[in-house]
Amino acid sequence: MVVTPLPHNQITTKKVVSQAKSSAKLTVAERAVLHLLTEEFLTPSQITARRHTSQQATSKIIKSLKQKGAFDTAFNNMVVTPTPLPLPHNQKVNQIRLHGEHWVIKLLTISEKFMKYKEGTTLNIDGNTIITHKNKIQVYSGQSFYADTAIAATAKGLEHWNRFFARLEQEFNVVIIKPRIPNRQRVNAHYSEINNETSTECEIKKEKIKIISDVDGKLWAEVDNSLNWHEFETKGQKSEGDMQNTVAPVFNDYREKRSPLPGEVWSIIAEQANHVKELGAGLNVIVKLITPSQPSSPQVPPLEKKKEEGSYFG
Q1: Is the dihedral of CA 282, 287, 293, 294 positive or negative?
Q2: Nearest-CA neighbor of 161 among 87, 103, 77, 106?
Q3: In-domain check, residue 184
């Protein structure tokens, strides 16, 4: 494997958003896609995977956003410029980044203040997108949480979300948090390993990796370089366990032991097989050259038996 060391980069993103028209007339789907485009900087393909819809549906919504002036057409030329700044001193090279969380929260009580919001109203609070419904809300995270493991990243995230949900209780005058009441469900999350060697190699070779689950047919993991952080990312409701128990151990074992990856193993075996084959052919030639020729043995005629004479008595 040829791996080029990745410099510690931060991302400076310039986005061009039209101020000419208000986005108040956007549908729920359009608001969600606009958030993913302008706040999380996802590509149309990534938006399609995140929303579990079709590429055609995503393209249609983006086209509608342009027609409504939700963002300028210059957005297509959005500049993402890597700025060579060192990562924070407490952020290691191969840390796990938790992002893209989607929460569905059933409200335990509903107030008159909350009922004033229409079905499908979209709000932006602290960089998170909130969509209101009759007796629940959806929260699309705009945050990232970094840690050495997926479990630790989840713990950091929960600390943030407990404070944020408490704020939503005050904002809507509702009850969200109550002990032993499982009314908050995280239905999606993305766990990425930053500066992953496989992702770096894919970037060099201009290759893409997507792994589809054979259980539900959904995208299970992929190589993602949308932020120039060379991430290997697990997706879905069980993505924490997938990263913690499957993906991270494989790459950590590779780094510690420097053992070859499966693709490298097969390359080595094939190379050795060809080498052995060539070596065997060469040895056969050498053996023939150094082996002296053996003269053919002369044909010895069979001995004739003498005719035995009879014994006479007389």
Answers
A1: negative
A2: 103
A3: yes
